[in-house]
Automatic annotation (TrEMBL):
Origin organism lineage: Bacteria, Bacillati, Bacillota, Clostridia, Lachnospirales
Signal peptide interval: 1-24
Keyword Transmembrane helix: no
The protein, known as: ABC transporter substrate-binding protein
Entries under InterPro entries matching the protein: Bact_solute-bd_prot1, SBP
Length: 459
């Protein structure tokens, strides 16, 4: 599979005057629409085509996805609207939080029990497509799924053996978010470089030893370490199917993570595990301002903001998008297809499944309901609809625009392989877990990480 390429900055024209461009190009929405008018299909035409190919026979579909409560609510509402438009199609939802989700769904996919329509991570295409058989070739259903709304570059990233295994929903990257209220309470500035990050650790510790300016799980630590290394050394993490950093350079990254703990910037993993929360957004210390920062995907931050807003013990907290923390002479960070929609290869109703995907990504009614719950849309038609109706979460738009303007590095297709990021048995979890407890030092951690990643890259 090809590596992700960096596309130009994206934004969405809203009441805040943020501009947005389609996935895969640097033009504004209006310019993109004008330049592709001859080859794109209008929403009305798509609707007419879809209705003309509906048999009217009773159809039952299953639709699976993960996410937070707001994504669940919006998707269920969109399903109801789809069923109202096509009364012969019944959609059964299956959803949950991310923890354990990939493990469960991978078993379903490999065992032939997957839902008809699946929200998938980009790396699932390589990990679970079984040579292009586990997922349907969506080009076979282009009569009901308008693929002209997506750039050829973004579709190419979703192909195996020249078969389109999925369509991209959005592009994403990681950015810093902060609880502004907590920083004001402590009396220090929101970090913008390493010095101010370390200074925040000292200030939070002095205010309350249970308060930290940033909280990171195992996988978060891996991504932030790569961000640090890219910022300092200016290289892609993986190049040509091999780890592109020496053991000494990775040791430097491990020392950086340990220093964050030592300087009270982040809590130890034992501390986070002792909080007894399924995920950070459900952690009482996050909800009540004890943990004041995260490094998170721009498409996933709304659940963290909602958790803060729902705090009973500390109402009125303000959640903001931060600037990228400078850690070297380069702009660290990578972008990726945040998620995609796929149809099970053994679905009994692949055409109707493709219709559901088209409704969610290209149909005016579906797009307006889902809005930016899965990030800034890659679909040109989806962007036009959001722009015309001044829709979209301003926080997501602001974060995505910052990510696309700043992060320039590539993500290799196996970075998120389950052998690496599975909790608790993935390489990332094992290595950073042992580093945090002191079971291994930074040199041993670097060696184990490189060894585990190399084995995955070679598999």
């Amino acid at each position: 599979m090809k590596k992700i390429k960096q596309w130009a900055a994206m934004g969405l024209a809203t009441a805040m005057a943020v501009s947005l461009s389609a996935c895969g190009g640097g033009k504004s929405t209006s310019e993109t629409a004008a330049s592709t008018a001859a080859e794109t299909t209008s929403a009305a035409a798509s609707e007419a085509t879809t209705e003309a190919t509906t048999s009217g026979e009773p159809v039952e579909l299953k639709f699976s996805w993960w996410g937070g409560d707001s994504r669940h609510a919006a998707t269920e509402e969109a399903i109801k609207a789809f069923e109202a438009k096509y009364p012969n199609i019944k959609v059964t939802p299956e959803y949950g939080a991310w923890t354990g989700w990939e493990e469960k769904q991978s078993l379903n996919i490999l065992g032939g029990n997957a839902a008809d329509v699946m929200q998938i991570n980009w790396n699932w295409i390589e990990s679970y497509s079984q040579g292009g058989t586990a997922f349907a070739n969506l080009e076979d259903y282009s009569d009901v799924l308008d693929l002209k709304q997506f750039t050829p570059e973004s579709l190419d990233l979703c192909k195996v053996d020249n078969k389109l295994m999925a369509v991209p929903i959005s592009l994403t990257g990681r950015v810093f978010y902060w609880n502004k209220t907590a920083f004001e309470e402590v009396g220090c500035d929101i970090p913008t470089d390493l010095d101010s990050l370390y200074a925040a650790g000292a200030a939070f510790k002095a205010k309350d030893p249970d308060m930290y300016p940033l909280a990171l799980g195992e996988y978060d630590r891996m991504i932030l370490m790569v961000y640090y290394l890219e910022s300092k050394y200016g290289k892609n993490w993986v190049e040509g199917g091999e780890v592109n950093y020496t053991e000494d350079e990775v040791k430097d990254g491990m020392d950086f993570i340990t220093e964050l703990e030592t300087k009270h910037v982040i809590p130890t993993l034992a501390t986070i595990q002792g909080d007894m929360a399924d995920s950070l957004d459900k952690n009482a210390k996050w909800i009540d301002g004890k943990y004041a920062g995260i490094f998170e995907w721009d498409s996933s931050a709304s659940k963290f903001m909602a958790a803060l807003e729902g705090s009973v013990n500390k109402p009125g907290q303000k959640f903001v998008v931060g600037e990228f923390v400078k850690m070297g002479d380069n702009n660290g960070g990578f972008t990726k297809i945040s998620m995609a929609y796929a149809v099970a290869g053994n679905s009994k109703h692949p055409k109707e499944a493709a219709m559901l995907i088209n409704f969610l990504l290209n149909d005016e009614e579906g797009v307006k309901i889902v809005s930016t719950e899965r990030g800034i849309p890659c679909s040109t038609e989806g962007l036009k609809i959001l722009e015309a109706n001044k829709l979209g979460d301003p926080l997501t738009i602001e974060a995505n625009t910052k990510v696309m303007n700043y992060s320039k590095f590539n993500l290799d297709s196996k970075f998120e392989h389950n052998d690496l990021k599975a909790n608790p048995d993935g390489v990332y979890y094992k290595v950073f877990g042992k580093l945090s407890t002191g079971e291994i030092d930074s040199k041993q951690a670097a060696s184990e990480l490189i060894k585990g990643i190399t084995e995955t890259l070679e598999s």
